[in-house]
Design a protein that fits this description.
The protein is an all-alpha fold. Helix content is about 60%, strand content about 0%.
Length: about 250
Amino acid sequence: MSRARIATLVTLVLLARGGAAAEVVVPDEGAAATQSAPSPTPAADWLTAPYPPERDNLWVPTIETIAAFVVVLGGTMINPEFSNTSPPSIDNFVSAFTNPPTFSDGDNGLINYIFHPEMGAEIYLLVRNRSYSPWAGFAYSSVASVAWEYLFEGWVEQPSAIDLAITSTAGSLFGEARYQLRQYLIEQPASTWRDVGIVLADGIEAFHRWVAPPEVTPITHDGVPDSCGPAPRPEPTTGLALTLRF
């Protein structure tokens, strides 16, 4: 056999081996795509997407709180016996500022230990859901509690020391527990039960989002839009800063 033929055979053998090796190392495109695909994440929707920073002012919660106080005060006038109040008078209002708060307001346990903490929690959440810290939420709830006792309820009864102590303290603890529960549910895969839990954890926030839903912005993976991921959420203000934006 000539040298040329031998060289040709050697070349063919090497090419055949190289092709076989190439076939071994070529990855399966479907398997690679499956392995590199990101794991599913909760979908962003009107219940979970963040609002823009412009929402973080306190005009809306302040107006809503005042409106709620007016409605509740009107309710006490409809059924004074249930709320243990007297008809509104200027004498009651003056007495609220000239005499110390009472430790025996005559209210039952339902009003003192359920209604008042619930009121404090709702006011706390109005601020907490606008990227404020727990301390800011507690401060706002405390100011609102004092305003209720003196500027609103002071027209029908003497301010209550029990209410002043319970409303913002217990209310803030209850409100923060509900806030953390809602944050946990937001991170869960989208489902009917998750949405129900979010609404139950904070019904007023859900109502706000239903009336004025936020824009849903999908996250991206390597620059590619992905509708399966939640929009980035702003970090809440931490520390003792109590800057309240109006």
